[in-house]
Design brief:
The termini are close together. The strands form 2 sheets. Strands 1, 2, 3, 4, 5, 6, 7, 8, 9 and 19 form a 10-stranded mixed sheet that branches. Strands 10, 11, 12, 13, 14, 15, 16, 17 and 18 form a 9-stranded mixed sheet that branches. α2 crosses α3. It contains 7 helices and 19 strands. The relative contact order is 0.15. The protein has 363 residues and is α+β, with helices and mostly antiparallel strands. The structure holds pyridoxal-5'-phosphate (PLP). The site of pyridoxal-5'-phosphate has 15 residues, from α5 and β16.
């Protein structure tokens, strides 16, 4: 990146991090990438020490939620270097989200380059343990200070990174999921297809109630008819019924186009599986279980990659899926995707972007 300004942290805080107890998103690396937007243009990009930012009480994002984000990971590759997984998909998706909430877009090459530069500066934070990774959180938000309801004229694009443990430190544990008929996360025409904070705010209450009842998460239903499955708050959902892999279609209007979702569908088609992106009735799921044709159910997302559903509770009926164990198909997706991410398996799809961390960085 040509005009990148790098201001290095005076001290590192890597020694404060217990790599045997990482958790998720609680430790942050030494630097962040920042670029501000004003006068109709993105300004000088910089990498600077991770630090708090001043917030004006009238900051428009605090009031009206004009903010979007991405979630991705960097992995230490067996082959040397650091791997990103399909980062241009994140770049495209950030721009789609940006358009929906009137945030200016970023050049996609710039977005991926920004990540490369930040990783080169902070690569020592990437955990060495298989399954662990450096979580990357890009975000874009309004920085104008006003109370009138309109889009901001100033923005900040930031990238922070956080070393994270494997979602499955204690082995894959299929989760209990509650089908929530009362609350909705997103609705056709709303923000469901954008990766924006508002969707998470909308899902917190139902998630909290479900946790109190002993569930890991909520499966939301399509908001208008409440007949079709939508998403698990931060993951897409898939079912294996009678050897057919089924997931709700993106044109349902409220589904976030997950990159893991896309990768799983691509692999499944490549492996010759029967794949359907179509509306999935919640009654159809319960019926399939009754008939014995519901083989597997799992969520897909960057954090866990594959998260098997062991129990699904709808109204007063609880069904156990695949004996509360991860199924062979879910396991194969998990092994294949993580194998590519860690450079253990070949990548015939061009999904893996390797960063050479020795390469020199900007001025
Ligand atoms: C980020 C996200 C996902 C998963 O997307 P991936 O690209 O696979 O990580 C699914 N649903 C929602 C609502 C999300 O925000």
């Amino acid at each position: 990146m040509e005009n990148l300004k790098i201001i290095r942290a005076q001290e590192t805080r890597i020694n404060d991090i217990d790599y045997d107890n990482l958790g998720f998103g609680v430790h942050f690396s030494d630097h962040m990438f920042v670029v501000d937007y004003a006068d109709d243009a993105w300004g000088q990009p910089r990498i600077e020490p991770y630090a708090t930012m001043d917030i004006d009480p009238a900051n428009c994002t605090l009031h009206y939620g004009q903010t979007i984000f991405e979630g991705m990971k960097a992995f230490r590759s067996q082959k040397g270097g650091v791997n990103l997984f399909r980062p241009f998909m994140n770049a495209k998706r950030l721009n789609n989200s940006a358009e929906r909430v009137c945030i200016p877009k970023l050049d996609e090459e710039f977005f991926v380059d920004a990540i490369r530069e930040l990783i080169r500066v902070d690569h020592k934070f990437i955990p060495h343990k298989r399954g662990h990774s450096l979580y990357i959180r890009p975000l874009s938000f309004g920085t104008g200070n006003f109370l009138g309801v309109h889009a901001s004229d100033k923005y900040r694009f930031l990238i922070i990174t956080s070393p994270v443990a494997s979602y499955y430190a204690a082995g894959v544990n299929p989760v209990r999921i509650k089908v929530d008929e009362e609350h909705v996360r997103a609705v056709r025409g709303g923000l469901g297809q954008a990766k924006t904070a508002a969707n998470y705010a909308a899902s917190l209450y139902a998630g909290m109630q479900a946790k109190k009842e002993g569930f890991a998460q909520v499966l939301f239903l399509e908001a208008v008819t409440k007949k079709f499955v939508d998403e698990i708050g931060a993951m897409n959902i898939m079912f294996l019924i009678d050897d057919e892999l089924i997931t709700p279609p993106l044109d349902q209007g409220s589904i976030l186009p997950g990159i893991t979702r896309d990768s799983v569908l691509h692999l499944a088609r490549d492996w010759g599986m029967k794949v359907s992106e179509r509306a999935v009735g919640i009654d159809e799921i319960m019926e399939a279980h009754k008939k014995g044709t519901l083989q597997e159910a799992f969520g897909t997302g960057t954090a866990a990659v594959i998260s098997p559903v062991g129990e699904l509770v709808y109204r007063d009926k609880a069904i156990i899926i695949n004996d509360m164990k991860i199924g062979p198909v879910a396991q194969k997706f998990y092994d294949t995707i993580t194998g590519m991410q860690y450079g253990e398996l070949d990548d015939p799809y061009g999904w893996v972007e390797t960063i050479n961390i020795e390469e020199s960085v900007g001025a």
